[in-house]
Specification:
It is a single chain. About 15% of the residues lie in helices and about 40% in strands. By secondary structure, the protein is an alpha+beta fold.
Length: about 140
């Protein structure tokens, strides 16, 4: 019995990531960078996102097929070569050089797994809010 409750506690502490998808509204609205926003109702079927107190969006969860991974990309220090071996032509003996033709390297690291995508559309009518509330109570 103790093992069951312990595993139940672990499930409650597990983090869940959701991708916010704005493809459905990208051509309809211009979202200013660093605009304040309020995202409410994440635990409902249709969360509401209000951006800059002007743009109102309603979301709908979509389950992913399989697991989606979210990555971060960062710069990596360039590969440095040490000149070694005796040579009369080796003017850089014991020096380190970087190949100027080498493309900048990127490091990609996974930061999260997600199973849901929250797709948004414009909230044009207040009836959409009523529909979202009705779905929550069902």
């Amino acid at each position: 019995m103790a093992a069951i409750s312990r595993s139940h506690d672990q499930l409650e502490d597990e983090e869940e990531y959701v991708l916010l998808d704005f493809d459905g509204v990208s051509g309809q609205v211009s979202i200013p960078p660093n605009a304040p926003y309020v995202l409410s109702g994440l635990d409902t079927l249709n969360p509401i996102l209000i951006i800059d107190n002007k743009i109102k969006l309603i979301g709908e969860y979509e389950e992913t097929i399989g697991t989606c991974f979210v990555f971060t990309e960062g710069d990596v220090a360039p590969v440095v070569h040490e000149e070694t071996g005796p040579s009369e032509a080796n003017l850089f003996s014991g020096k380190f050089i970087v190949d100027p033709k080498q493309a900048p390297a990127k490091e990609v690291k996974p930061i999260a797994r997600l199973h849901k995508v929250l797709k948004f559309r414009l909230l044009l009518r207040e009836i959409d809010i009523d529909d979202a509330i009705a779905k929550k109570t069902d």
